Amino acid sequence: NIVGVVLRCNAYEVIDLGVMVPAETILKRAEEEAVDIIGLSGLITPSLDEMVHLASEMERRELRLPLLIGGATTSAIHTAVKIAPTTKCPVIHVVDASRAVGVASDLLSEKRSKDFIAANEEKHDRERRRHASRQHAGKLLSLSEAKANAPAFDTAGKAPAPKTIGRQIHLDYPLEKLVECIDWTPFFHSWELRGRYPKILDDEKQGETARSLFADAQAMLRRIVDEGLLQAQAVYGLFPAARRGDDIQLFDPDSHQETLFIPCLRQQRGRKNSLNRSLADFVAEADDYVGCFAVTTGHGLEALVAEFEADDDDYSAILAKALADRLAEAFAERLHFQIRTEDWGYSQETFDNEGLIKESYRGIRPAPGYPACPDHSVKPALFEFLGAAEIGMSLSENHAMLPAASVSGFYMAHADSHYFGLGLITQEQAEDYATRRGMKVEDVQRWLQPSLAE
What we know:
single chain; Cobalamin-dependent Methionine Synthase, domain 1; 15% strand; 6-stranded antiparallel beta sheet; Rossmann fold; 3-stranded parallel beta sheet
């Protein structure tokens, strides 16, 4: 959205086709409108494959247009290694929205275009060399070696049994309780303002812009809360759990029958004096507990955005979306605080938003699609188990959460639990993971593509 606004403000005509648009639709419209540039943005892992497919289709159609790549899930390396080789068209990874105008201007300039494209190709070459060195930097252990190097489970760090067990639901959580939990730093980052809140408000170069944006955000946030323009809803619970190898099995609190199966992956990078971790390491082999949650603050957002767009107020529409995202993250943080201090009850901490932002508390809430658990395809089972449809949450074909202002994941409370990145894994583990999940290896490869060593 910000890219489109920035380009429009600089006299570019932008045709926004929306989200989750098939390659065929994008390319057909590009040909019909005789566009000068095609831009793609990706927020979740499967969109990376779609970008490769679209670039290949451009080549098949001999559609010679520059292709801009951006979004949270993209990278310069993936663009250079996976997308660019599939087409003769210039493929440019755009780091952030603030650079879109400069890139478009250089591409369309008769004087600068040739040199810009040549420099971009040199950048691709550097990224490919970097990728190749990364593939060979550090040995990847075999799966059996990685498992043998797993941390031992410390029974002393196991959390007590929860005070409240089973599924719970919030249908209209008070928005005012979420406002005090907002982490404002990512909000400014989403507007391409780099720095930490509140220091960014006094930044010599960005302070004035940051203060103006913050004032607008506060005004809209007051309206959202006062008028109840968004609804905060959640479904969550704590459930009996046990580790099963590198996976976690949940059980019904009453019947003790198996319910949700949570597949996990293990680090395989061989490093001196370093263990190879899996999320399953934080769960005991019997008589333990794991939580699940799905929260959203997106209900009502579509109507609010439509109101602004009807007035051609793109700025307010983007601001509303950014605030809804921040409220969703604040809801996840607030609910986790409730879990630790009330439902599970293992923590006596008092509310401190700065401490929450720094995550200076015991326990983690890993989410599918994030570093320790990069597989988005875990979400459908999680949503079905929780009954997320009851609060109007669903998943797209590629497992993006709907409404977009939503967060989901798991709760773990072992004293040693912490966040980590999976890193690269071998084909051996991908095949083992596919077997454990009852999936085709090629499907697992699609979902784990950025994590697979070549």
